């Protein structure tokens, strides 16, 4: 214990002294290696009729104590919930009971006893054995005030999960979402794949990457911003239906909708186009929603949502005309810029017809799309990996899904022409040279793969964290991440 600093807060110092005494008496709780539980708390509470009078072994963290003279009640918290146990000096003996009285809130204990109900009707365990399994040297937050400050909750998620057990339900929902996604694709014969996180070129999306250095190879590398280009190389190689759920990293701002590190689902199907992939996307979200919520109608932050049916579809131009009153079929870039200035809208750095259209949509339309809505007809400037519309070369064959004013995912008919793809990459490269840090670089390895022949392919991406937000009814993406990115203390 000589390595532990002694300049701790008063409560911590008292707990430390208790631990030292236990160790001197040969009762170091940290020497315990296991405890065999027979039941979770919820099993005992829900199964009282069958377990009454039977012996059970439970374990968890002490979260409430009512210490009395010769008998006491405690609540412990395990993964499934909380349960009360009763302990008395008559059952345990004076030495064991007095040792128990020195336990603190937060300590982890194992209890063996018989199931019964108190006079007030609370299912409890009448202890006849108790063992201290771990000593909490730092006290839990005050039980009345709890841990409410979001900054502290996200930074000390372990304390948040102890103090606010309801938060655990968010992450149970998250687990169900991910397993539901896998269930959906596995049942349709998609193969799950894994592609590199460290990449020579950050490609597959317009985003600013995180840069690192590979010491052994002495080369600059990037944390991936997407998985798209490697997936398409697998399509070239002959895998026709693939998906990946993985972390991607974008060196951008933090907000209620954005975290620099997030979970992305991407899936690709050879011989499919955007229209087919849109239907797969709708079926996927409906499948997972039904699995998690038990229904396709539910409330999100007080707003009633209905994910049933076929979902609304609009083009980007139609939505801007309907909401903002601007008809981009009758505007060129110069006139569009003038109209946006009149409306006091922020202008994009690059001012083409397409970027002005998209910027107007972002500022005026997105927030109005509450029920599930597919928006199609995006300008090619923002979709450098997507096929052009056969009837209008300014438009890419791409859709985005919006729910509650948030983009949930993109659907594409992918470019499979290596010559067209090179020209798109070169256009992106020119934007990079002008200072656009989110524009893509030319990926020669990908172009080389495409030259062997890539079948017509549909692709789709889903921000898993945002979908979890929706189904877990959380207002911020940080609520759906165990450990969101935080500023250093």
List keywords for this structure.
489 residues; alpha+beta; eight-stranded mixed beta sheet; five-stranded mixed β-barrel; 34% helix; 25% strand; disordered N terminus
Describe the structure.
Strand 4 and strand 5 form a beta hairpin. The protein has helices at 10-24, 41-46, 48-51, 89-92, 94-101, 150-155, 157-163, 167-187, 228-236, 274-293, 316-324, 333-342, 353-365, 418-433, 444-450, 464-472; strands at residues 55-67, 71-77, 82-88, 108-117, 123-134, 191-192, 198-199, 211-214, 219-223, 241-249, 261-270, 297-300, 303-306, 312-315, 373-379, 395-403, 406-413, 457-463. Helix 8 packs across helix 10 (274-293), helix 11 crosses helix 13 (353-365) and helix 12 (333-342) runs parallel beside helix 13 (353-365). The chain is of the alpha+beta class and 489 residues long. The chain is elongated, with a radius of gyration of 29 Å. The protein has an eight-stranded mixed sheet with strand order 6-10-11-18-17-16-15-14, with helices on both faces. The chain has a five-stranded mixed beta barrel with strand order 1-2-3-5-4. Strands 7-9-8 form a three-stranded antiparallel sheet, with no helix packed on it.
List the SSEs and their pairings.
Blueprint: H1 10-24, H2 41-46, H3 48-51, E1 55-67, E2 71-77, E3 82-88, H4 89-92, H5 94-101, E4 108-117, E5 123-134, H6 150-155, H7 157-163, H8 167-187, E6 191-192, E7 198-199, E8 211-214, E9 219-223, H9 228-236, E10 241-249, E11 261-270, H10 274-293, E12 297-300, E13 303-306, E14 312-315, H11 316-324, H12 333-342, H13 353-365, E15 373-379, E16 395-403, E17 406-413, H14 418-433, H15 444-450, E18 457-463, H16 464-472
Parallel strand pairs: 3-5, 6-10, 14-15
Antiparallel strand pairs: 1-2, 1-4, 2-3, 4-5, 7-9, 8-9, 10-11, 11-18, 12-13, 15-16, 16-17, 17-18
Helix pairs in contact: 8-10, 8-16, 11-13, 12-13
């Amino acid at each position: 214990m000589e390595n532990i600093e002694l300049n701790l807060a008063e409560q911590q110092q008292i707990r430390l002294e208790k631990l030292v005494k236990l160790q001197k008496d040969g009762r170091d709780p940290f020497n315990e290696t296991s405890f065999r539980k027979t039941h979770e708390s919820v099993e005992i509470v829900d199964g009282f009729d069958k377990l009454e009078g039977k012996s059970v072994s439970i374990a968890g963290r002490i979260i409430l104590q009512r210490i009395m003279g010769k008998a006491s009640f405690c609540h412990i918290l395990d993964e499934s919930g909380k349960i009360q146990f009763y302990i008395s000096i008559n059952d345990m003996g004076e030495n064991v009971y007095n040792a128990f009285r020195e336990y603190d809130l937060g300590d982890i204990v194992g209890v063996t006893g018989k199931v019964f109900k108190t006079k007030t009707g609370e299912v409890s365990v009448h202890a006849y054995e108790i063992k201290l399994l771990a000593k909490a040297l730092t006290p839990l937050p005050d039980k009345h005030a709890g841990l409410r400050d979001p900054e502290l909750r996200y930074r000390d998620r372990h304390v948040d999960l102890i103090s606010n057990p309801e938060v655990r339900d968010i992450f149970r929902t998250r687990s169900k979402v991910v397993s539901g996604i896998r269930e959906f694709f596995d049942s349709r014969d998609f193969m799950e794949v894994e592609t590199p996180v460290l990449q020579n070129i950050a490609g597959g999306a317009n985003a600013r990457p995180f840069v690192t250095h590979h010491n052994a190879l002495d080369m600059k590398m990037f944390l991936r911003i997407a998985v798209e280009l490697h997936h398409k190389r697998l399509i070239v190689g002959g895998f026709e239906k693939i998906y990946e759920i993985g972390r991607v990293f974008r060196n951008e701002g933090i907000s209620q909708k954005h975290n620099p590190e997030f979970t992305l689902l991407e899936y690709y199907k050879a011989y499919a186009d955007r229209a087919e992939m849109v239907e797969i996307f709708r079926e996927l979200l409906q499948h997972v929603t039904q699995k998690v919520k038990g229904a396709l109608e539910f409330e999100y932050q007080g707003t009633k949502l209905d994910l049933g049916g076929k979902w609304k579809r609009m083009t980007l131009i139609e939505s801007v005309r309907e909401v903002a009153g601007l008809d981009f079929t009758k505007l060129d870039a110069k006139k569009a810029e003038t109209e946006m200035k009149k409306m006091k809208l922020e202008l994009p750095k690059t001012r083409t017809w397409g970027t002005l259209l998209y910027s107007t949509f972002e500022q005026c339309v997105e927030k109005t799309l509450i029920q599930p809505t597919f928006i199609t007809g995006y300008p090619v400037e923002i979709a450098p990996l997507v096929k052009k519309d056969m009837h209008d070369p300014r438009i890419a064959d791409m859709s985005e899904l919006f729910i509650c004013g948030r983009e949930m995912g993109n659907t594409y008919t992918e470019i499979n022409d290596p010559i067209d793809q090179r020209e798109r990459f070169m256009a992106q490269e020119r934007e990079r040279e002008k200072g656009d840090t989110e524009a893509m670089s030319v990926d020669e390895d990908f172009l080389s793969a495409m030259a062997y022949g890539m079948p017509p392919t549909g692709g789709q991406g889903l921000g898993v964290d945002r979908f979890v937000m929706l189904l877990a009814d959380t207002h911020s993406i940080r609520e759906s991440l165990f450990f969101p990115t935080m500023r250093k203390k």
